[in-house]
Amino acid sequence: MKQTLSFIAGLLVMFAMLATTTAAVEKKGPDALVEELYSAWLSKARVQKSELQKNPKKLYALADEITAPYIDYTRFSRLVLGKHWRSASETQRSRFEKEFRRHLVRTYATALLTYVDAEFKFIPSKYKEGDKQVLVRTETRPKDGGPKISVNYILYNKEGVWQAMDVAIEGISIVATLRSIVRSEVHNKSLDAVIEELAAKNRRAGL
């Protein structure tokens, strides 16, 4: 399960790799953005792979620097916490978002590097001009010759820029999965305890 979640989170963040967003790029449809995104990530990560493997902190810093402007962490945190977001205080929301973001950076940065040599196939979506939400499908085949993996991205248009709001791998939603895990943890402990556990793990990783 942890490996699956790492892979899902890694794929989710690929949507933030277009750090040089311009008016011309924003006008592209979601399919074109996904393909350009993969190309941008692979061209950079494959060259730096050895160095990033030796220096995880550099990997985390690079991933966060590139992705920070293009991921709506507040929206993502709200979706994952679900009902607990509504009952949480402003301080708890802020702390959870901060530590959850750091946790995701560690997770997806590692996953992205793990799958940097994989092969990707893009399946045309049914996107129509004016759509505010769209499903973009891809298939990933690991370099070791393992079975292909179906990866579907749900994108929404936020003020002219397409962003990921969920990712499903083999039909498993990252939002639904993480929400279930967090809900169980909060129920068995408390939201403050969950936040502190995330913070402790992040500190051990140097974040």
What does this structure look like?
- By secondary structure, the chain is α+β, with helices and mostly antiparallel strands.
- The chain has one domain: Tgt2/MlaC (Nuclear Transport Factor 2, Chain: A), CATH 3.10.450.
- 58% of the residues lie in helices and 17% in strands.
- The chain contains nine helices and five strands; from the N terminus they run αααααααβββββαα.
- It is globular and about 40 Å long.
- The protein starts with a helix and ends with a helix.
- The relative contact order is 0.17.
Strand content: 15-25%
Indicate the CATH topology: Nuclear Transport Factor 2, Chain: A
- Can you say what the CATH homologous superfamily is? Tgt2/MlaC
CATH architectural type: Roll
> What is the strand tally?
5
The secondary-structure class comes to alpha+beta
N-end to C-end Cα span: 24 Å
CATH hierarchy, class: Alpha Beta
> Which bin fits the share of residues in helices?
55-70%
Number of helix segments?
Answer: 9
Strand order of the largest sheet: 1-2-3-4-5
Shape: globular
What is the domain tally?
1
Report the biggest beta sheet as strand number plus sense, adding barrel if it closes: 5 strands, antiparallel
Order of helices and strands: HHHHHHHEEEEEHH
Cα-atom Rg, whole angstroms?
A: 17 Å
**Stretches with pLDDT under 50, minimum 5 residues:** 16-26
| Mean pLDDT score | 80
